[in-house]
Amino acid sequence: MFFDVAIDMQVDDHAFALEFTSDAKLTALVGPSGVGKTSTLNAIAGLLCPQAGRIAVAGEILFDSDQGIDLPPEKRGAGYVFQDARLFPHRKVSANLVYGEKLAAPDKRLITTDEVVSLLEIGHLLDRLPATLSGGEARRVAIGRALLSAPRFLLLDEPLASLDESRAETLLSLIERLRDELDLPMLLVSHSTAEVERLAGRVVEMTVTKPA
Amino acid sequence: MLTPAEWTVVALSLKVSLVAVLVTMPIAYGLAWVIARRRFPGRMLLDALVHLPLVLPPVVTGWLLLILLGRNGAIGGWLYETFGVTLVFNWTGAAVAAGVMALPLMVRAMRLSIEAVDRRLVGAARTLGASPWHAFLTITLPLSLPGIAAGAMLGFARSLGEFGATITFAANIAGETRTLPLAIYTGLQLPGAESAVTRLAVIAIVLSLGALLVSEWLVRRSQGNRAHVL
């Protein structure tokens, strides 16, 4: 099983519960705004702590309230591509890319910096600062940074949001390639049905739940 | 221009302020980080305590230092008995007084710049494999550098001007604790020392203005870096 999630979440005033398992290479998480899709990604990455429950990815338990397991984010192996890219503003693109690579065990690396640069076509951006990048460029760099950190799985939060059609199409085929060529379970949050139908092997629909 | 005694005053002032700022800087940054990033009971109290030297009459701060760090004080007595160190009536005492008075200003500047660092960047660093300490060193610390520089310069300017707490705690001893403001004050008590007072006052103005300009330059440079160079 790639993703095995059963959590009770409380984020500020919003409470929700979510339970799903998936063994598709790419799982899509869909649902209306504010339902807790991003919070779910944050919980899987270890940036938010569920009230209770269990999170396992590719056979490894990341969180289990019954067993008292709660791995810190740096031990979870999440390659998290944030919706806002979240590049480090004081580091050039090249330094952003290798941030996680330097911290990863060499034998766990999936891909080299050169491969990432040519795959994402970001060679001309390496000397730039994140503030000078367009939204699409920043997102490609964020994907590269996540891939280079030797992740065990990928979390993609609305990777195509606010991109114009041609750029969205480029990124969509890129995600397809990653899905088919890398051995990485992927969990994608999306609003777009077209995107989800094309990419996902399994769709998890989140609906507004009243706390018990 | 200056007499040897006046040069002593200037050199002592610079030494006291420099040591005060260098020693206070890591303490101020640690306090600023805790107040900016941690939520714990007593945080408000800690914040208030840090700001106390800003609102208390400096003489009272000096008196409190005397009670705590004087040779018979709770901490000072222990320091004297264990290490034979005395802080009262020597230049280290003047540096302690200046550092304590500069602390609130330094914490304020640093805290603002730490709060301005997006915490989600730290979260991103953690998902990329950084321990909390590594994320601090590579994200929070470099992004809050402008605040560290501004805090250090403000603290330096404040230390140069420190009078009340210094004269109360470290006394007014020529060559030991008589910094610029104390020397100017002493000169004003003596008949016929007007020209010496004027020279010292001009130096005080030049040094303070210099510190301000350097701090402004540091902030601009770091902003420039962020936009173009790094």
Which helices and strands appear, and what pairs or packs with what?
The complex is a heterodimer of chains A (about 210) and B (about 230).
Chain A: E1 3-11, E2 14-22, E3 26-30, H1 37-45, E4 52-57, E5 60-64, E6 69-70, E7 78-81, H2 93-103, H3 113-120, H4 135-148, E8 153-157, H5 165-181, E9 186-189, H6 193-199, E10 202-205
Parallel strand pairs in A: 3-9, 3-10, 7-8, 8-9
Antiparallel strand pairs in A: 1-2, 1-4, 4-5, 5-6
Helix pairs in contact in A: 2-4, 3-4
Chain B: H1 4-37, H2 43-55, H3 58-69, H4 74-83, H5 91-115, H6 119-127, H7 132-143, H8 145-161, H9 164-169, H10 180-189, H11 194-229
If you had to describe this structure to a student in words, what would you say it looks like?
The complex is a heterodimer of chains A (212) and B (230). In chain A, 31% of the residues lie in helices and 25% in strands. Chain A contains six helices and ten strands. In chain A, the strands form two sheets. Chain A has a five-stranded antiparallel β-sheet, covered by helices on one side. Chain A has a five-stranded parallel β-sheet with strand order 7-8-9-3-10, sandwiched between helices. The longest helix of chain A has 17 residues. The model of chain A has no long low-confidence stretch (mean pLDDT 91). The N and C termini of chain B lie far apart (44 Å). By secondary structure, chain B is mostly helical. In chain B, 80% of the residues lie in helices and 0% in strands. Chain B is globular. Classes of the chains: A alpha/beta (212), B mainly alpha (230). Chains A and B meet through strand 7 and helix 2 of A and helix 6 and helix 7 of B.
Question: Which labels suit this protein?
Answer:
heterodimer, A: 212 residues, alpha/beta, B: mainly alpha, MetI-like fold
What is the gist of this entry?
The complex is a heterodimer of chains A (212) and B (230). Chain A has helices at residues 37-45, 93-103, 113-120, 135-148, 165-181, 193-199, and strands at residues 3-11, 14-22, 26-30, 52-57, 60-64, 69-70, 78-81, 153-157, 186-189, 202-205. With 212 residues, chain A is an alpha/beta fold.
